Each structure stands twice: as structure tokens, then as C-alpha cells.
Amino acid sequence: MTSPDDDLLARLRALPDERCPPADSWQQLAARLPPRQPQQAAVFAPQPVRRHRRWRRWSLPLGAALAASATLYSVLPGLRDVPEQAPMSAAAPTALQVQAHVLAEQYKQAVETLPSAQAPQWQPALNELDRSAQQINAALAESPGSRYLLDQLQRTYALRLELTRQAAQAASRQPS
Predict the structure, then answer these.
(1) Of 120, 117, 100, 98, which Cα lies nearest the Cα of 108?
(2) How far lies 13's CA from each of 5, 9, 76, 78, 80, in Å?
(3) Residue 92 to residues 33, 69, 104: CA-CA distances in angstroms?
(4) Per residue, what are the HEC states of 60-93?
(5) Angle at Cα 64 formed by Cα 60 and Cα 68, nearest 5°?
(6) 8 A C-beta contact, residue 122 and residue 166
(7) Which of 19, 51, 61, 114 has the fewest CB atoms in 10 Å of its CB?
(8) What are the angstrom distances between the C-alpha of 108 and each of 100, 103, 128?
């Protein structure tokens, strides 16, 4: 027993995939339309910009709260008799700094396992990657909590290793 939906689906599947209109259909349609009357361009006056009422309602209290918190932030440290803590750089290294150190050690070990490549055409790119790694390490020293810098260092080391492998392969293919 077939349902009405099955009959409908069968009829839909029987329809052609594409149907092209006759070539002169646009001309026939244009002939049936009434002629166009010239129209004058409408002039619209610019509407004033509407600001949200909610923003106006909350802007004064938010500004006052921001000013009060800034005042408290600047005044309260002077009222306390607690000595300031030692700077963060003197503290133990952060987890990202430890990861960067481990990453650098793994990179050095990986470079030592690769054959040395005497490919002068590759040297400028290798030097540039080394400079980039040094700059990222310096930035990590200034901003030890930056995950982005650690990711960049990892990408730079990976590029340097891949380029070193390619240089070694190119040097081994060249006749001596």
C-alpha cells in the first residue's frame, strides 16, 4: 500500500532535472508589459542617527563606576602597609617557560641527529629561522605566559628542522 507521500515523491522524481525556457520568452514577456513611464528620482532626506536608549540610560552609572574603581585602584595601595611582592621574573619559571626549554632541548637533539648539510643556497633561510627563534625566545623572556609565543617557537623549530632535512637531502643528491 502506497501513501500519498510516496506517490508525490515518485511524481517529483519523474520530473526532468532541468527545464529551459523558450529562446524568445523574454521578448514575449516584454511585449505584454505596459510601456514604462519616465519617473522622477525620489529625494530622501537623511534620517538622524538614533542612539539606543539603553546605552544612554547606563552610560552615566557605568562611567561613574569606572571612575570610582580607578580611584580606588590608585589610592588603596598607598593606604596599605604591606610590602610589595618580589617581581615575577625572580619567581620559579612558568609552565610555558619550562615547555619552551624542553622544546629547545628536543630541537637541539633533533638537529644533532640530522646529517650536516653543506648547501650554501639554503643557508640564508636557515639563518633567518634561527634569528626568528632567538627573537621569539627573547619575547618569551619578557612575556613568559604567552601561549602564542610558545606556539610560534614550536612552528619555527619545526620549519627549521624540515628545512634542514631538505637541505641534507639536496646535498646528498648533488654529485661531489
Answers:
(1) 100
(2) 12, 6, 77, 81, 81
(3) 83, 32, 18
(4) HHHHHHHHHHHHHHHHHHHHCCCCCCCCHHHCCC
(5) 175
(6) yes
(7) 19
(8) 12, 9, 17
Q: Which three cell numbers stand for residue 96?
A: 610555558
> pLDDT tens per residue, the chain (176 residues)?
668 889 999 998 898 888 787 888 888 888 888 888 777 776 766 666 665 565 566 666 767 776 777 776 666 665 555 455 545 555 677 887 888 888 888 878 877 777 766 667 878 888 888 898 899 888 888 888 888 888 898 898 888 888 888 887 877 776 65
Count, residues in the chain? 176
Query: Half-sphere exposure of 103 toward its Cβ, with a 13 Å CA cutoff?
Result: 21
Q: Give the closest residue to 111 by CA, choosing from 84, 137, 130, 89.
A: 130
Angle (nearest 5°) at CA 120 between 138 and 162: 55
